[in-house]
Amino acid sequence: MLDGIKRWLGRGTDAPPQAWEDVIAWAQTQGHKYRAVAGEGFVVDGRQGGLAWRLEWGPSQRPYIVGQELRIRSELGLASDLQMLVMNRQLQEQMERDVYEQYVEGVQTRIDNQTPPEMRWLVMFSKLGGAEMGALDTRYVALGSQKEWLVAWLGQALAAGLQALRVEPGVPIVLMIGRGRLMLRTALEEAEVPRLQVWLRLFETAMAAARRVAEDAAVQRPPSTTSSLWSPSALPGDERKT
Known about the structure:
- By secondary structure, the protein is of the alpha+beta class.
- It has one domain (18-222).
- The chain is built from seven helices and eight strands.
- The protein has an eight-stranded antiparallel beta sheet, with helices on both faces.
- Helix 6 (147-164) runs antiparallel to helix 7.
- Mean pLDDT is 82; it is low at 1-16 and 224-242.
């Protein structure tokens, strides 16, 4: 009788939402590991070569992303002091307005550790100039702690991948390197497989480019053996840093 009631209501509570069944099928086909998270989103774990990546889709963890957020990250074993940021120009302009309103016209007198690193780095580091950005200059900004490293990173296939990306100007796009980790964030209201694939391809391009630059610059270090984001308890809602 209970099964009949469930069928009448449409779907049992333990079954995945219809919209995510395509994601499950895609993950299985590609050899990735899929896991739903408390009805709010999901996690997909995969690998590029010998390095793991994690794709998370769920409620936004950043104020500049409204609604659902897509996050992809990987521990690359880069130098811990390497800090790189690439974002779309419209988001950069909005963040700089927010910084001015909060810390110049507002009551706050300093930027602290509670401020997202994206915002702190906009204040800390100089942006690449138009000549260094090339064709990316109209849509993106880039800045970081080591200019030569950043230029080399963009000089790989990453610049072509960013240039080929077709999204509305107002869609937040953030690529970051910090504490040895590469992170991509963007707004993605619906978890559609073709869109996930687009963002994952961009991330893997950025991942491969960062590894090549690190090898060329001889700055790569062994991956940390301490507890990291790959812990079984690390869910999209558990992230507290970066």
